[in-house]
Amino acid sequence: xxxxxxxxxxxxxxxxxxxxxxxxxxxxxxxxxxxxxxxxxxxxxxxxxxxxxxxxxxxxxxxxxxxxxxxxxxxxxxxxxxxxxxxxxxxxxxxxxxxxxxxxxxxxxxxxxxxxxxxxxxxxxxxxxxxxxxxxxxxxxxxxxxxxxxxxxxxxxxxxxxxxxxxxxxxxxxxxxxxxxxxxxxxxxxxxxxxxxxxxxxxxxxxxxxxxxxxxxxxxxxxxxxxxxxxxxxxxxxxxxxxxxxxxxxxxxxxxxxxxxxxxxxxxxxxxxxxxxxxxxxxxxxxxxxxxxxxxxxxxxxxxxxxxxxxxxxxxxxxxxxxxxxxxxxxxxxxxxxxxxxxxxxxxxxxxxxxxxxxxxxxxxxxxxxxxxxxxxxxxxxx
Amino acid sequence: xxxxxxxxxxxxxxxxxxxxxxxxxxxxxxxxxxxxxxxxxxxxxxxxxxxxxxxxxxxxxxxxxxxxxxxxxxxxxxxxxxxxxxxxxxxxxxxxxxxxxxxxxxxxxxxxxxxxxxxxxxxxxxxxxxxxxxxxxxxxxxxxxxxxxxxxxxxxxxxxxxxxxxxxxxxxxxxxxxx
Lengths: 383, 179
Description:
The structure holds two protein chains of two kinds. Chain A is mostly helical. Chain A has helices at residues 2-15, 23-62, 74-77, 82-88, 91-103, 114-132, 158-167, 169-179, 183-217, 224-229, 236-239, 241-254, 279-304, 322-347, 355-382; strands at 139-141, 147-149. Chain A has one domain (110-382). Chain A contains 15 helices and two strands. In chain A, strands 1-2 form a two-stranded antiparallel ribbon. By secondary structure, chain B is an alpha+beta fold. Helices cover 26% and strands 13% of the residues of chain B. Chain B has helices at 12-16, 18-33, 73-77, 118-122, 148-155, 168-175, and strands at 56-58, 83-89, 101-109, 128-130, 145-146. Chain B has a three-stranded antiparallel sheet with strand order 2-3-5.
């Protein structure tokens, strides 16, 4: 790790063409960065995959059912204890679902606009994977005692970058709806775009009040790592509860989850923007949706729920070194899991809003509240 | 005239919607910890109600004699024409030769049967009975046309209180009294 930091220091100017650096060092630097990026993507993708199972299991439990508990892969299911555990918890159903998406015939409807139709699922998933590289999953200390984030890319404006790139995911829905050349996907896409654009304002304004506070304590208030590090004492949901509430409501809308899943809305729009999609291309939308949920959870946890600190006013001490890093990382993952459970729990509790109610809620209620909240914290900061 | 329904005026907390969400979440959370209502069918057998109409079967009496006298009433009453009876004679050297007739072959097409129970109602001998077997399956159509052997194997023995084909005197002895 510390080696990587040194490499960054020596190689960045070289990559930009301003300093000398051996090609071997540069190659190693690039390889390491790629490995870290892959690790971050794997974490988010694992969460996306597991939340599919979690969704089916939690919804089954809420409805008094068992959920998937029959699917068994012959050899693995025969392993004592482990095999039964995997079978009962539906984890082998996950493999079956994935294989189904991979092996089904991949039809390309004749009436679609081919290029955009094919690009849409990629457009829906890739922003999530890019954002995954910006999320700090933990903290580590180098030999000098300086804290560094456990992230593939530590940039000063990571909050801004995550909000901006994460919002690009909706272009996948818009492209899918437009290129499908069919009325239900089209309506789904219109709803998705209108909804995401509206709720993004609320979301950004809610995050702004945190950034306002950060501006008074840090040099780079837009860095997710700085925001996380500032929560070793009190967490931001305690000092800014309204902002946290607005942010989570907007996050539900942003990730197209119930009660705001206007884009999919299977009761009135068949299946919304991905009506014309099947097999693996649908699978990409599906994974993208859950990836968005995992990413949104991570963002909410970093902004308001104390990131990798286990409890308010308690944090893992720096003196424990890598043990603290590991514990912090695990804490962060546990928090993401809890948030994903919350997402699923809400989905199976609340009915869907009507489209006009969604818009009215945003523009007449959440937006003014977010603005008032921001002005309030601005006033406090000014005093 | 249009009927105007009086809407309840919502209070502040109701319009806020959040307390309602929290109470809803509490209900679904409680549901997670309730026992499951799913019957895990192949592992757990369902509890069938009394009078359940499963597959029709042929039964024997307590002496192991086949009760059917091949009157073919069930065949005639069957609305889906699932039953085919081929009447036959009881051989003269049998102790039941006086009953005269028994089915040479008795076929029920389980693919046609609608489990209405009319055959059971029509049978004067109580020889055909709808029992509890609801899981009727086979690998081919021919396999699902049950013949006499299969129907008796499924049916088993259904003892009657009155032995209809016994002489009145014997029945009285069975009852433990005089006729």
